[in-house]
């Protein structure tokens, strides 16, 4: 398998996080308004979802075109966003889009847990190029990530079912990425302990 083509890291970050930031901006501008489209009234949340879905599709295609590769997580996320975002817009019901992160995280937790049971570390296949580690390190990281995704699924359910729409949008836009970044920072010692030497080290 060929290595992904290198692109400007700022461009890559913009393509990955730009659609989410756009969703946040559109929602914040329209959250207290009702928008009428083709004779049907939609909340600001639904309009933000309507904007987010095609923009995510375009940014993901652009990322694939520029790098020549998409991670399995990116593909799964795109498919579920199109399905559940489309259902939210079609049925004019925000619940479908809100439950989407729960389903994504449960799928990832299940896949990682299943890979541990089968003794085949799929996480290593996806991330080994960026984080070369010994097999024991991958087993520990896989277990921790499976538990993380399970916890995120539970957290998403609690937030969208018990808090305001604005609280959920803030949680999705800033809370979930911050938790993921914090997770990898917290595992820095694991990466150092089980790291494999790189060429030239």
Automatic annotation (TrEMBL):
The keyword Transcription does not apply. InterPro entries: YciB. One of its GO terms (cellular component) is plasma membrane. The keyword Membrane applies. It is a multi-pass membrane protein. It is found in: Cell inner membrane. It holds the Pfam family IspA. The chain crosses the membrane at residues 12-30, 42-64, 70-91, 103-120, 140-159, 171-191. Keywords: Cell inner membrane, Cell membrane, Membrane, Transmembrane, Transmembrane helix. Belongs to the YciB family. Plays a role in cell envelope biogenesis, maintenance of cell envelope integrity and membrane homeostasis. This is Inner membrane-spanning protein YciB. It comes from Paracoccus halophilus. The gene is yciB.
């Amino acid at each position: 398998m060929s290595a992904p083509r290198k692109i400007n890291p700022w461009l890559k970050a913009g393509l990955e996080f730009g659609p989410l930031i756009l969703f946040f901006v559109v929602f914040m501008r329209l959250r207290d308004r009702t928008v009428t489209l083709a004779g049907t009234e939609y909340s600001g949340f639904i309009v933000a979802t309507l904007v987010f879905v095609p923009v995510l599709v375009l940014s993901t295609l652009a990322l694939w075109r520029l790098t020549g590769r998409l991670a399995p997580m990116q593909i799964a996320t795109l498919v579920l966003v199109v399905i559940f975002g489309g259902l939210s817009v079609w049925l004019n019901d925000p619940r479908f889009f809100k439950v989407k992160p729960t389903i994504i995280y449960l799928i990832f937790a299940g896949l990682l847990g299943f890979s541990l049971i089968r003794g085949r570390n799929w996480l290593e296949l996806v991330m080994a190029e960026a984080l070369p580690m010994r097999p024991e390190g991958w087993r520990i990281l896989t277990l921790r990530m499976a538990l993380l995704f399970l916890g995120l699924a539970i957290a998403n359910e609690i937030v969208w079912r018990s808090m305001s729409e604005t609280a959920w949008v803030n949680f999705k836009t800033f809370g979930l990425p911050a938790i993921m970044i914090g997770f990898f920072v917290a595992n820095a010692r694991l990466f150092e302990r089980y790291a494999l030497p790189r060429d030239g080290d």
